[in-house]
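Long-time lurker, finally posting.

We've been working with ATP/GTP-binding protein (Streptomyces pactum) and I want a structural starting point before designing mutants. I don't trust myself to interpret raw outputs, so I'm hoping someone here can both generate the structure tokens and explain anything notable. Sequence follows.
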Amino acid sequence: MHTPLRRRLATLATTLGLVSIGFLGTGASPAQAAISDCPKGYFCAWKTYDGTGTMFQTKTDKATLGGWDNTFRAVVNRTSEFACLHDDPNYDQASGAVVWNPDPAATEWGNAGGAVSSLKFVSTARECSLPAHPQWYASTAPRAAGFGDLNADRRADILVRDKAGRLWFLGGDNTGRLVGTGGWNAMSALTRHGDFTGDGREDAIAREASTGRLWLYPGTGSGALGSRELIGTGGWNGMREITAYGDLTGDGRSDLIAAEKSTGRLYLYPGTSTGALGSRKLIGTGGWNGMNALVGMGDTNGDGHPDLYAREAATGKLYLYPGRTGALGGRTLIGTGGWNVMDDLLGVGDVTGDGRADLVTTTNGGYVSPECRGTGCQLVYAGRGTGALERGVVTGTDWWGLNGAF
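Top reply, 14 upvotes:
Generated this for you. Predicted structure of ATP/GTP-binding protein:
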């Protein structure tokens, strides 16, 4: 369960006849509430609704609460982590958990409802009820695609960034592994598609929001990333979409494309033998700032050239732009509308194991289907081998509370 505790407080306050806004932490606290007694860096609780009397305090996980079991009334979380208040001992998920947000300044406090038997601290809200990363499964492809596979096992991989700025490697076998301990929230664009350094391993590229610099993170071949290398000294904040594309030029090296915000032009940045990018080439004269997603898909139509999917922001339509040597061909409509309910659009190669490039998506709050609705659904759209897609199939429902995937 990931219902904000504040919602429960409002209900409880009404039941108890507590009309003071201060009780819910949005105004001045009642004079008798000794919230200031809670030290910074601790989670504190009282057996009274007004925060008076004996105080419980901890900054470590508590699998059981001893004499404090089922007695938490007023609580405040002055730590920098999320506090998970579990109804059962040992962090059991059977009865769910309530999330209390980090609040080192103690600006908000309220009532836990009493039914708390264990307490743990986590880096993201979703970890109160789920693992830090979602599950991801991909079938083994009949042949290596040259992209979408960071550990070269012929399973399509996904890198996921969580709300704490950590990076997780999902290898396609329903497991996940931490490959970036933090700092990834400083990046405003993340992309990967093939080998940029020439060592046969897939790499990742990221744009730093504060500087507009572009960084290459070489793949290690295990799903992890090596020390970053600067490949763009600045100005990349002027680009709306930055997408690792694959080999568009036909020289055997992965290339990058980017749409310029101010002009709507689309540029090709060819890869080089050193991992750097060559001089850009104009491949789209305008209108590309009307697209809010560009996906390097690999060869979707069997002509030997990697292709591009692009989502039109105004209409939610999805278009195929077939690859040509150093250019893109005329577009074809492959999705008539509704694609704006998708959050991430991922081209990670063959997911279904039939040798064709597939599309993976995650959803935002506008998505509705019989199998799943709202934020956090994941779908796989199997490629037909013609550039078009089969109907999407919901393959996951635990993709909420994250901060992007690529």
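Before you design anything, note these points.
The first helix runs from residue 5 to 16.
The CA atoms of residues 66 and 102 lie 24 Å apart.
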